[in-house]
Amino acid sequence: MNTGKVDVLLGLQWGDEGKGKVVDVLTPRYDVVARFQGGPNAGHTLEFEGQKYVLRSIPSGIFQGGKVNIIGNGVVLAPDLFMDEAKDLEKSGHPLKERLHISKKAHLIMPTHRILDRAYEAAKGKDKVGTTGKGIGPTYTDKISRNGLRVGDILCDFECKYAAHKERHMKMLAALGWTDFDGLEETEKLWMQGIAYIKEFKFVDSENEINHLLREGKHILCEGAQGTMLDVDFGSYPFVTSSNTICAGACTGLGIGPNKVGNVYGIMKAYCTRVGSGPFPTELFDETGKKIRDLGHEYGAVTGRERRCGWIDLVQLRYSVMVNGVTELIMMKSDVLDSFENIKACVAYELPDGTETKDFPYEIDNVKPIYKDFPGWKKDMTKCKSQDEFPQEFQDYVAFLENYLETRIGIISVGPDREQTIVL
Ligand code: 2SA
Ligand code: MG
């Protein structure tokens, strides 16, 4: 942790690496936790004191008093879903109003954005992205095409602006031949209630706030959502989300200069998962894949969808380490592999022309993973309290990953609870 710099924590695979848990473990070290991209498509799961929480738009620092939590300009916010999430947290004894600040520059996800999301997916047919249906793509599209509606707009002449945006969306839907508007009126009512609710929070110019806090010597953690392979530029395009999930996204999504970035924590699972469509070189379609899904409880936190499972892909991870400038790795869910006889890690791809590469290529549809085998450790690690309790086979696996990725693994998680986290 460096004074005067922000640290960034992000996922290195296709999301669901366990960011929620790590942020929760790291937050005691920080004064401020800020979200910089994504929206209610995220599902950050935290478990402590026997309770499980899923956060979507709200930063994971919310569970600890005395922290400032910021929703940055790079985030897209659905007021109705935000209200549900916030009220649930308040009901469970976690007050938010004082602790959460929202950027005026964050864009609003309108009910018609969610319909547009469905309509675009339907139009793609079998090539659909498999989105979460939360309106993420259409909202970012409006932002980039300079048609967006922002949180700051709530403060002035809002109804009128809303109506104009809605009318434009309705024309777009008509052009797509879309006729399913079931529940729109009801959703709009809740959405407007969400707008009234959100006004009770402090709206800020988050770039000013965050830079002031930095100058005051406050320690700031930027919390990423989704994962590097879902980045709109560097991920498995077009099967990606619509924001920059990589470290640079923290600069544009909060208003921080690149020279203000300190540590970059990259989170990965000991294996790999993805939800939605798109290529996934190490995906397992057999019993082993199913076993990983069952033992790892690999189901979407937002949509409940089954996650596709496979072995860890070091070609992909090395690329992620590179584009993010990762300074320290964090490995999650190591315990899920406890009972496996053999463990594999993809160390190179065979390209369609028969050549081998360790550089992540433009197309990953037709690459064949080349694996290195590791003997399983076959020991329950969920009770391990320190590094020296790790079985030798696991220590060897970790050493191989660190060497291949040329980056230190600083934290290893051996279970969902806060307590099951070993700092090396
Ligand atoms: P979208 O909705 O436009 O962002 O979808 C585009 C692609 O991005 C993927 N995506 C995700 N992948 C993993 N986890 C995500 N969050 C939830 C979770 C997902 C869930 O934490 O489990 O509950 O299903 C997430 N959000 C977006 C998505 O699958 C598309 O491939
Ligand atoms: Mg998730």
From TrEMBL:
The active site is at 16 (proton acceptor), 44 (proton donor), 143. It catalyses: IMP + L-aspartate + GTP = N(6)-(1,2-dicarboxyethyl)-AMP + GDP + phosphate + 2 H(+). One of its GO terms (molecular function) is adenylosuccinate synthase activity. It comes from the Bacteria. Its cofactor is Mg(2+). It holds the Pfam family Adenylsucc_synt. InterPro entries: Adenylosuccin_syn_GTP-bd, Adenylosuccin_syn_Lys_AS, Adenylosuccinate_synth_dom1, Adenylosuccinate_synth_dom2, Adenylosuccinate_synth_dom3, Adenylosuccinate_synthetase, P-loop_NTPase. Keywords: Cytoplasm, GTP-binding, Ligase, Magnesium, Metal-binding, Nucleotide-binding, Purine biosynthesis. Its EC number is 6.3.4.4. It is found in: Cytoplasm. GTP binds at residues 15-21, 43-45, 307, 333-335, 413-415. Substrate binds at residues 301-307. IMP binds at residues 16-19, 41-44, 132, 146, 226, 241, 305. Pathway: Purine metabolism; AMP biosynthesis via de novo pathway; AMP from IMP: step 1/2. The keyword Nucleotide-binding applies. Binds 1 Mg(2+) ion per subunit. Mg(2+) binds at residues 16, 43. PROSITE patterns: ADENYLOSUCCIN_SYN_1 (PS01266), ADENYLOSUCCIN_SYN_2 (PS00513). Plays an important role in the de novo pathway of purine nucleotide biosynthesis. Catalyzes the first committed step in the biosynthesis of AMP from IMP. HAMAP family: Adenylosucc_synth (MF_00011). Homodimer. This is Adenylosuccinate synthetase. The gene is purA.
